[in-house]
Amino acid sequence: MLEKYKFSRRDALKKAGALSLGGSFAGLGLSNTAVIPAAAEDTPQEKWSKNDSDEIYNTWNVGLYHSSAVGWYGADWIGGGDGWGHDFRVSSTTSTRDTENDNIVPAVEEQSWWLTNGTTQNMYISVHDKKIGVHPKVSDSDDFDHTEFALAIAREAITRLSSLATFAFSAADIAAKYVVDPGADGSHAHDDIWAYNDLKADTSFFRWIKACTDSNDSVFDIGTECVGNYDLACDTNYTFTINGDYVPSEGTVSNLSSQRKTTTSMGTTLFRPKSGWLVEQIPYAKIAKRTKQLGLSEETRERHLNSVGKPMYFAHEAPLTLVQ
Asked: Would you say residue 254 lies in a domain?
């Protein structure tokens, strides 16, 4: 089962005043309430959730219940062969319960996730260190120190699981229990597997991924899986496509008509260069403040600050589609 969420009018009104727009709204396809969120860590541009279950009815009567949520938090233009860096945050929750009375039955053996490159070999995948977490703890790790980044997506995963079974923790509880498990950088595919020495009843993880694409058409998969005792197994998979690329440049922005661009209260320029794209051009002097408002990582902020004098381009909309 699949659900896709978009901003509601209430969401937009809640963000009103965070970034007011001037100029033409009609040309950008925006209303005066459809403001760009200033704090992206708790409001992804798009989010999806799925669940799965596996039950055994015999002597044991045990059910394995699994859910996941994926949020897309926009993309920043990296260039230099890496193209756009799409920010995804992924969370998963798993519970094992007695199918007759919902009592806790420790039966989870391992949990895992993966991101695989479908059609383009120039995808670059990185997993942000210290913005990732796993529960229960598997190896010696530092404390998870960015709980605010996990809350929104963990909450979606827990909500999705609730249609199947209970989960022992709230989003705040599980975020507080996460410990950092090492990330990875510079690969064309990535996966993590957490195998437990003893059976668990409630498990979860959080990952903040940057998937870079620099081709017109890209296909890639984000998946989660859990395996339990009694040969129980569940998984969820998200196949994404990006159709149509855009390469930003200052000249392109200045040549756009007033119907396709507008100035924000932050002194940035919001524009639609082509169908499917809504991009914000951020002057170099505004990068430090604006990246913090958008909830972007320290790594992203520093990368753009190191390109002295150059503006940053951030996509609030891109031709990203979940196909299954």
From this structure: no
Nearest alpha carbon to residue 144 among 211, 196, 204, 73:
204
- Both tokens of 223, joined, read 């998946």
Mean pLDDT of the chain: 79
Range of the domain at 57: 2-14+44-243
Cα separation values, 75 from 58, 66, 317, Å: 49, 28, 8
For residue 234, how many other CB atoms are within 10 A of its CB? Answer: 23
Rounded distance, CA 125 to CA 318, Å? 18
Instruction: Give me the DSSP letters along 108-151.
Output: EEEEEEEEEE-S-TT-EEEE-TTS-EEES--S--PBP--HHHHH
Closest-CA residue to 271 (of 285, 294, 288, 250)? 250
Q: How distant, in Å, are the alpha carbons of 91, 131, 146, 261 from that of 177?
A: 14, 13, 12, 44
Is 182 inside a domain boundary?
yes
What total of structural domains would you count in the chain? Answer: 1
**Is 113 within a domain?**
yes
pLDDT > 90 in the chain, percent = 35
Lookup: tokens for 235: 């998984």
Residues 6+ apart with CB under 8 A from 219: 118, 119, 120, 239, 240, 241
Q: Which of 193 and 183 is assigned the larger pLDDT? A: 193
Q: Phi-psi bin for 224: left (phi > 0), alpha (psi -120 to 50), beta?
A: beta
Compute the distance between CA of residue 113 and CA of residue 194 in angstroms, rounded to an integer: 9
Length of the chain: 324
Q: pLDDT tens-digit profile of 36-82?
A: 444 455 677 888 999 999 999 877 899 999 999 999 989 999 877 67
Residue 38: CB partners within 8 Å, gap ≥ 6?
15, 18, 19, 293, 294
